[in-house]
Design brief:
Four copies of one chain form a homotetramer. By secondary structure, chain A is mainly alpha-helical. Helices cover about 70% and strands about 0% of the residues of chain A. The interface between A and B is large, with 42 and 39 residues.
Chain lengths: ~240, ~240, ~240, ~240
């Protein structure tokens, strides 16, 4: 709508609240599904579906405020793809965005723990190790970046909320790792000893794989979608959803 | 479309019919799912999915008539957010809206009972007590209010039907309480002795938690979305869906 | 787009093909789900979901040709609501529409039987009797008519495909009868001895209940949505989807 | 947006990457669902749902580049329906499109194998034979072509991504064959010894049935949707999604 971004404090509040709500749904639905079904397929179906639905509604509602990233690698990609245009995030904003996302993700994880009568923060003991899991994280994150910023580059940022939910749901099922695809959520999931937790020792290679995947996605972007013309106007709806 | 709201009797009829249909789906799908599946996860999946789908279609179809609230706390929030503009509900209308919603919810619950060969009204014996459940109700209701009126404030009221369905489905899975998030439905669910029932004694703290959550949601609204300019025109589609 | 309806033979072909595809999905998904899952809840979930998805895509794709009714009671309601405007179906067209729908539904049922190595037409022995089932059929059909033509009357015919799918999925779960809500499909389902079949003896009260429900839905239409102004122009997109 | 198609190398990259991602989701979700659930219905539900969601997001994101076909028979139909207008694929482009799709599908299948700690390429031993399966493939593919190009012909190409996902999900459940409906994916699925695999000996009749179904779909297109006027302008959004 307007080209003027909201003030930074509102954008950070939106990133923190949105990432907290997302983490609460991811972690909470995992706990509830585990309590309800003995069928591991039904558990995962509930966890994945709830998480994807939350992604869609949170990005749609909060996108016009902050971009609706809720994911440091999406913020990095938003900064990178708009760095020559003076319209995107600055490097300093990138840092505080990531901080707000991480704080939100940990708070949301704690909220989910509390809602199921657990201590606010726990320590996960669930090891998730293996090169095939890291490959899966890279594939899931790379395609996330490629699809989201391909939509933005073709002037269809309004489809980003649905696209993220659709892709993450598909990728959770398609991958061995479950498609965390988000460093803030990956770090926060160390703090719940439940279905969606991850042991601290398994986190670093997950983060590295996600970063490498995102870089591949960014590298593929011009191969598939071309280079953006410097003179073309930025479509309103792309700005609306990605840089707020 | 038009800025002239339909006459009050049509708006009340829409709120009553819509809330009745919603309650019939919530209660009826719970009874059917319980009859069909021994897996508690599958039962909940069916109940949640059916309820969320009904919310989307009922708000979309009846929204232009009455706002499609079907929930007294949504009506309260609609009154509050538009109280300075002369376009929203009056306090008196708020009261009759809540009455129509409650009457509709009880009728719909009774209809579901009848459709499954039960007496029109029953008494639920299902206690739902505990601070963690109340926290869950507050979180689910607060985010519902924040997301719905954030969409309205940013001129995207047309997304409200989908957003409500998406959020409620996610919140049902994410919370220990199952995200009732609606005082009219909570009261009506005292009258079915089935999957979705709630014992009368458990109702008051649920209502209080929902109210507190809604207030937190309203308090967060300007923090994330800013204060509405007094001079800005109200977008058509926001009016269309929220105040009819 | 254009106010000129396609020629009748194309409209009848679209109604026949669309209803055949719908019947094939309803019946075929019931057979497959029965073969795959021992959990009656999972079976019904698969059958309902597949049927609702097919409704959405078939109405969306074929709606501009024939209106995408695939249901004689929807055709009746389309004729009734537009009878004073010279733009809807004539009584004679109504008859041939119903014929095309019934022929399509039986053909689609037979196709599903063949795809699962059964004879083209079978006789169902599955009795579905009881006043609570008839109440359920009336409720499901009445709300279908109310929601669809409420959308049309408020100029939002473009939402009809999604609304029909959402409502039917919700109603299948909410009702004891499974929400047949369609006389052509009800008659056709006599011809498969599988999950979705219905014994011939159970059909007449189902049809009567559906008819009564549709009449109640039509009677509620002006109560909720008002009477259409004679002078107001018919919105393009309403015509597009309902009368082609 | 623009009538100028992107350069061929970008279109081929988009077809290859999109078909690879699609194949990875189809095959990967089959492996994961098999590992998680003992209920064959839950397995199929997960596999079908993930595949359909991936189709929607991939066609939506990559459609403006290459048309988002990911299926040689869709490319054939795109060429055929636009052969007199000088705007569609040429015969030579059709060949390289099919090559890119097949290379992508095999790569994606291998990627899924790797993500689940299997060799890059395997040999499937799963026979899928029988006239009823071939009938099912013809029905699923024919309706896919009819619905997609019916939407394009009526100027609603923007609905194609959702329509493909909806139809494929419905058709998977409705058919005995599982609705492969795509020669590139069918060939690639020879190379995984898992849930979605197909033995080489079963492939030729599948391909033939898919081809015959597509031809029936193309033959029905003018019967239902009429012949396109030679003088009518091509709607932008149709071009956008089908020929890029």
């Amino acid at each position: 709508m307007t080209m003027i971004a909201p003030p930074l404090h509102r954008r950070l509040a939106a990133e923190a609240v949105g990432t907290a709500a997302l983490a609460a749904v991811v972690v909470g639905s995992g706990i509830r599904a585990t309590a309800l079904s003995p069928d591991l397929g039904v558990r995962f179906l509930a966890n994945v579906t709830a998480s994807a639905l939350a992604l869609v509604v949170l990005i749609a509602a909060l996108g016009p405020v902050s971009g609706g990233h809720f994911n440091p690698l999406v913020s990095v990609a938003a900064w990178w793809t708009e760095r020559h245009e003076g319209t995107g995030l600055t490097v300093r904003e990138l840092g505080v965005y990531a901080g707000a996302q991480l704080a939100g993700a940990i708070t949301g994880t704690g909220l989910a723990n509390l809602m199921f009568e657990r201590p606010f923060l726990q320590v996960s003991g669930q090891a998730r190790d293996g090169a095939h899991l890291w490959l899966a994280e890279a594939v899931a994150t790379g395609l996330l970046v490629l699809l989201v910023f391909g939509l933005v580059r073709t002037g269809r940022g309004r489809l980003v909320p649905a696209a993220v939910g659709l892709w993450i749901a598909a990728a959770c099922w398609a991958t061995s790792s479950g498609a965390f695809a988000n460093p803030a959520l990956t770090l926060a999931r160390m703090f719940t000893d439940s279905y969606t937790g991850i042991a601290a020792g398994s986190v670093p290679p997950f983060l590295l794989a996600q970063l490498l995947g995102a870089l591949v996605g960014l590298a593929l972007l011009p191969v598939l979608f071309g280079r953006r013309s410097r003179t073309a106007p930025v479509p309103d709806d792309a700005r609306e959803l990605v840089t707020g």
